[in-house]
Amino acid sequence: MTHSDVASPSRRYAGNSAEDRREMRREKILEAAIQVYGEHGYRASTVQAVCDAAGLTKRYFYESYRDSEDLLAACLRRVVVEFAGELAQAAPATQIGREERARLILRAYFETLKEDPPRARLFLLETDGVGSDVVDAMREAQSDIADVLVPMQAGANGRASLQRLGAVAGTARISSVWIADGYALPIDDVVESALRLFTGLLEG
Question: Measured in whole angstroms, how far is the alpha carbon of residue 38 from the centre of its chain?
Answer without folding.
Answer: 11
